[in-house]
Amino acid sequence: MISLRNCLLTLLVTGSVLFAQKGELPDPKLTEFWTPQPPVVSSPEGGVPSDAIVLFDGTNLDEWRIARDDDEGNVKMLPANWVLEDGAMIVPPRAKGAKSSDITSVQSFGDIQLHLEWRAPAVTDPSKVSQQRGNSGIFFMNRYEVQVLDCYQNESYVNGMTASIYKQQVPLANVCRPPGEWQTYDIFFVAPKFDPDGTLREKAHITVVHNGVVVLLNAPIYGPTEYRGQPSYKYHTPRQPLRLQDHNNPVAYRNVWVRELDL
To answer: Could you report the per-residue pLDDT of 42-88, keeping only the tens digit for each?
Structure first.
């Protein structure tokens, strides 16, 4: 089906060619679009855009759950148990041998803009280096990870450092602030697209802005995050939850909101 906009573009191009052949300049109104007007969004300085979905405002964990497999292999959603402190939610301490407490969003999303602030804990043990310092992660669609890590004067493998797509994409710069200071991520995630038969039509892509600096720009994601081996896409539904990782480090998060993008 040919869209109205495509028809208009065809007419504009044809008209411009005819004018050019006659040596005349076309009416500028021929290249002006007035509809449809984009929605109006208010965005107060330092605040939350009016069309954003707030996932954490510092007061409660109502928008988050912990997924647990029961003895029959069924997934049960339990209340999030992260620590609430001074407007932040913090990965809780974990007893040796206990399961991780990754939290997943109650709501599911496709293409989104995500804003959040995170803080790596102050270094108390200098022997902890590389991936042992301030380790966490943000999983889009519960499977594609942007790494959270304390890489301030702390080197690690570059495809696993702060703001990397874990084991896939290396950030353009290290913009880490010292541990104990708040940092910001503004991330623009375009979900993968699948054909009805489950065949991948388009990879996921991501742009990451770390502390105001672009460190990944429309970078392709090659499949779900894998610790071992190579990533490979498998069909999933177009909307999935976000997940924040418990890597047994007391990383803190605050001011978490998303905007759904109609692309």
So the answer is: 999 989 999 999 999 999 999 999 987 766 667 788 999 999 999 99
Residues in the chain: 263
Distance CA 136, CA 146 (A): 9
pTM for this structure?
Answer: 0.88
Over residues 105-129, the pLDDT tens digits come to: 999 999 999 999 999 999 888 889 9
d(CA 72, CA 90): 30
Q: Domain ranges in the chain?
A: 1-37, 41-260
Measured between alpha carbons, how far is 230 from 192 in angstroms, rounded to an integer?
Answer: 17
Query: CA 181 → CA 15, 121, 122, 176, 186, distances in Å?
Result: 58, 8, 9, 9, 17
Give the chain's end-to-end CA distance (angstroms, integer).
19
Q: Is the peptide bond before 250 cis (omega within 30 degrees of 0)?
A: no
> Could you tell me the CATH superfamily of domain 41-260?
Exo-inulinase; domain 1 (2.60.120.560)
- The Cα–Cα gap between 129 and 4 comes to 58
